[in-house]
User: Fold this.
Amino acid sequence: MSSAEQPAQPDTPNEPDLSASASGESVVGETTAVVHRSPRYFNFMLLGAIIGAIAAFVLTVAFPDNPDFGKTQVFGFLLLAGLAVGVALGSAVALIIDRFGRSRTVVVDKLAGNVPSAVPAPDADHSSRSSNEKSE
Assistant:
């Protein structure tokens, strides 16, 4: 994780955050939470598909012409197989990274919001009328 992604550390971590109380929330306590970052599966599958398409093109160009099939037919067959294998391998790599990825424990604050006590009640006349009834 780069320094741009990490939140700024306060100089004194034991002091309460005053900005939370100004927004109507107060710190109730602290607890620990496990943070697990998972890979973006679509990006791995897309990368595998691109590598499979490149491999299909290279294999089509690398081998001599086949008298039974044209180059476009060979490329099409290899492209179908290359895309399927590439997506499967990309998914497998993402699953392996997700399985063996590291988790870390962080300290988080429990916040309690200050709910205003005077909440206006909904108007009873409008809630009893069905929306399907025609007003005359």
Remarks:
- The longest strand covers residues 25-36.
- The chain is about 45% helix and 15% strand.
